[in-house]
């Protein structure tokens, strides 16, 4: 009996080649599962950010509204006639603003012409003078045309023609 029990104990103490293969396969499956879980965890963290970025709408394309060219007499100290021929395009954010401006165009043109005729040619010659004029025209255009009406919003006033004689 002693001879039969000893070989059984040595056989069970060292795992057989089949048990090693199963153990290695089990470790590989657990490692692959952990790697897959890690990838899923980090990808799911980024998915809401990517989804919210995709849901955010891009800003609307600007709407450019050209006005008819205008010619005005400028103030002069030297006794000569000086003229300004100007072409303007308004950069707007929506079509509603364009419709409001179109509906009140005679009043807007009158405001612009009166403001332009109040300038001196030497004031309009430098770049800073043109920038100041664009800012002044923007504020004139944005003023409400009807009492109690909200002001319209103009993104920018762009010069498409600017000739001083």
UniProtKB/TrEMBL annotation:
It is a single-pass membrane protein. Keywords: Cell inner membrane, Cell membrane, Chemotaxis, Flagellar rotation, Membrane, Transmembrane, Transmembrane helix. It is found in: Cell inner membrane; Cell membrane. The chain crosses the membrane at residues 21-43. The keyword Membrane applies. Controls the rotational direction of flagella during chemotaxis. Belongs to the FliL family. NCBIfam families: PRK07021.1. This is Flagellar protein FliL. It comes from Paraburkholderia metrosideri.
């Amino acid at each position: 009996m002693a001879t039969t029990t000893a070989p059984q104990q040595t056989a069970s103490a060292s795992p057989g080649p089949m048990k090693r293969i199963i153990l290695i396969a089990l470790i590989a499956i657990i490692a692959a599962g952990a790697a897959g879980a890690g990838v899923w965890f980090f990808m799911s963290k980024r998915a809401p950010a990517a989804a919210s970025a995709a849901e955010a709408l891009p800003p609307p394309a600007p709407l450019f509204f050209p006005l008819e060219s205008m010619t005005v007499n400028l103030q002069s100290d030297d006794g000569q006639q000086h003229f300004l021929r100007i072409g303007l395009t308004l950069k707007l954010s929506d079509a509603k603003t364009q419709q409001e401006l179109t509906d009140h165009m005679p009043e807007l043109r009158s405001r612009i012409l009166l403001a332009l005729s109040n300038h001196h040619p030497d004031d309009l010659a430098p770049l800073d003078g043109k920038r100041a004029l664009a800012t002044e025209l923007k504020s004139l255009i944005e003023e409400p045309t009807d009492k109690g009406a909200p002001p319209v919003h103009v993104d920018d006033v762009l010069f498409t023609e600017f000739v001083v004689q």
